[in-house]
Structure formats: C-alpha cells, structure tokens
Amino acid sequence: MIATKLRPPIFLIGNYRSGTTITQKLIGLHPDVVTWYEPRTLWLYADPGRGHDVFTERDATEKVIRYIRGRFLEFQARNGGRQIMENTPSNVLRSSYVHEIFPEATFLFITRNPFSYISSMELKWQRTKTLKGIKRTLATTPITQLHHYAGVLIRQIFVKKILRKKYAPIYGPKYEGIDQDLREHDKLTIIARQWARGNRRAREDLAQLGEGRVLTCRYEDLMQDTETTLRRIYDHCGLVCSDDILRTAKEMVDPTRQEKWLRFDPEQLQAILPEVEEEMRVYGYEVPLPLRSEKAGKGAMLGPSPEECKA
Prior knowledge:
This protein is α/β, with parallel strands linked by helices. The protein has helices at 20-27, 40-43, 62-78, 95-101, 114-124, 131-139, 146-162, 178-184, 187-207, 219-224, 226-236, 243-252, 266-283, 306-310; strands spanning 10-14, 33-37, 83-87, 106-111, 214-218. It has a domain at 10-125 and 171-265: Rossmann fold (3-Layer(aba) Sandwich), CATH 3.40.50.300. The protein is 49% helix and 8% strand. The relative contact order is 0.15.
C-alpha cells in the first residue's frame, strides 16, 4: 500500500561539485529509497525573483510549507511510497529554511577539498546549461513562475553562444553580494568564496539542529574508504547497508579524481588561499604541498591529516 503520509525525507546538504550526486546515488541503492535530483526551483517558491540563494526559516511561511511539502508527497506517491532522498546543492545557503519546512527530516552534510572543488567549478562556469538540465529545471517550476527562469536561461545562452564569452554569467551558489563580487574580482576568487561561504553557512545552520541530527562526512573519505563511510551514512539514515549494496557501491566510486586542480598555476591558487583556509581547518584539510610558501613552512598545515581524522 502506498503511504498517504509523507515519510521523513533525507536531505543531502553539500556544495556544488562536492560529491553530492555520487553520494545520492549510493544512498539510492537502498530499495526503500527514491532519489530526487536537484528540484532547484521548488525551493525558490518563497521568492523566485530573489537575487541570491540565501533563505532562512523566516521565508518558510505557511503557504510555502504547504506547497513544498505537498510536492514532496506527490513525488513520494508517484514512486511507490518510498522514502525521498533529496539533493539540491544551493541548499547549502538555506539549511535552516529546509529544516523549518521539514523539521522531522534526516540531514547529511558532505564537503570536498576546496582545490578539487575550485577546479571542477571553474570548468562548469565555462559551460551552458544542457537541454536535459533545462527540462529538469522546468519540470519542477510552477507555471506562474516560469518567467523568472526564462530570462536567466536566455541570458546564459546569449553570453555563451552569441558573445562567445569564456564563462557563463553565473553558475553555482549565489551567496549574498555575489553580483558585486562578479564586477570586482576574478572567477577563481568568486569560486573560492562560493566554497567557503556555502560551507560555512551550512555548517553553522546545521549545528543549530542539535547533536546527533546531522552527519558530516568528506567526499575524499567516501571515495577512499567507501565501506566505512557508507555504513556510517546508512546507519545515520536508519537504513540497512547490505553486502550487495556495498559491492555495487565499490564498483561505482572512482577515487582517482582528486588531483585535477594541479592544472592551475600554484600562484593562482596561493592568491585565493585566504578565502578558504579558515574553513579548511574545520574539515581537516591541509594546504597542498605545491602551495606551501617558504615563509609559511610547517605552519601551512591546516588541521589534522585525513589519516588522523579516521583514527
């Protein structure tokens, strides 16, 4: 029998290009879970014309709560009543808003080394939205709000296809003040701030939920020690991680995609290190060897090593 009551959703909070997609797929291996991939415009229902992605619990009015929960219940019903596991990267800037709408939900928070993130994001800034991506966005957009997104898509296509610019007008989480920064700073600085401000906002908002409500993990640990990390994730979500699931998961992960940031000149990355180093300490990331200045010496070590974190 298909449930007529919404089951507590599982929300994966994590920045763009931080392993949210593969993590969602790994959790989606469980037969009682259905994954919902990035219904971005659904979360903007409270204010689709807002110039940034920051929403708080004050934006979760009764109307907004009723509408978004209703859409979740519809999705659950269409998928056999299975528990929804949702992932929208821009929610790193609105975790408290999500929690206000779904106070019963389970939360996961995933982060990734900022230099791997910056490398991946820089490439994404160079691409236009695909037809598949446009269709997916429009599928979750209320008809009355379509005009808010049509202009954005047209602008992106014009900048990339007509003006032949290297970068799209904007990509990724829109923190408050990003429009001003785009006029004053280079793209790597913007991308570094997207990582730092998104992670900081999510970390601080999720900490308010109380001990035991949120499981935080690193993308690198999931790739390198898939079994241990995935078992922790499944346990936190109240799911059983079977041997069959683990075997399939290990075939899906690729732990070799961590060094593509080396394509950048070290001086470029050293220039943006001040943007990310404070948040790096929180998650135990070290300044990579090529970026350690002679002046910093051993002082460039930020937090414990990954091996120490596992101990």
